[in-house]
Specification:
The protein has ten helices and no strands. The chain is mainly alpha-helical. It is elongated. It starts with a helix and ends in a 27-residue tail after the last helix. The C terminus is likely disordered.
């Protein structure tokens, strides 16, 4: 009977680790990286000691939590650079970055330097910005991208995109796609011939109002 104990312990440890990561994706995804570790532990149904046994630091947890998003970001950069049409590559990279950021406030926080200890994300960000600079050069040479575009314009775009994080998740995704479509049109050197491509329906956004003081 005791021969089965190590396997059971390993299985329980794997289950705990999986629950912690699922909870971290949910908590950091909605609340951002400012959410405390104890909230992740509570959401996962484990004690703080169990959480820290698997992830000794918050940085360790964040890197593992967003491993899939980082792989998706790497793929987006590689696909865009390999595209034979530089303008299409540029557009697809902007769209996919917005999509990744819209799905997770935590990933957007890490990418946009809200958690400076996450050095892995700093490398991802620099790789992405270098790709944008190269794609922009090619797209400008093709005459499709505005001559005045600079990489800082993408940073400004992502800073504005962060404002969508306060909307409900379903509306946020749709709003993000509309936002990306409008920004891409603003970056275009000349309007497309004919009618512009239709955008997704606009979500109904709920505005919050502070109670009026008597």
């Amino acid at each position: 009977m005791t021969g089965h104990l190590p396997r059971t312990v390993r299985s329980d440890a794997r289950d705990n680790r999986a629950r912690i990561l699922d909870s971290a994706r949910a908590v950091f995804g909605e609340e951002g990286l400012s959410a405390p570790m104890r909230e992740v532990a509570r959401h996962a149904g484990v004690g703080p000691a169990t959480l820290y046994r698997h992830f000794p630091t918050k940085q360790d947890l964040i890197v593992e939590t967003f491993a899939e998003q980082r792989r998706a970001c790497h793929a987006a950069v590689s696909d865009a650079l390999a595209d034979s049409d530089p303008w299409h590559g540029f557009r697809s990279l902007v769209e996919r970055i917005c999509e990744l950021h819209a799905h997770s406030r935590g990933f957007a926080d890490a990418f946009m330097r809200e958690f400076p200890e996450a050095m892995d994300f700093a490398a991802d960000r620099e790789r992405t910005l270098r790709a944008v600079a190269e794609l922009a050069r090619r797209a400008q040479e093709s005459g499709r991208l505005r001559p005045g575009f600079v990489v800082d314009d993408l940073i400004l775009m992502l800073m504005a995109h962060r404002g969508l994080q306060d909307t409900p998740r379903a509306a946020r995704i749709t709003a993000s796609r509309r936002f990306a479509a409008y920004v891409i049109e603003a970056f275009r050197a000349v309007p497309e011939e004919g009618a512009p491509a239709p955008l997704p329906p606009a979500p109904r956004l709920q505005l919050t109002h502070s109670p009026s003081t008597p």
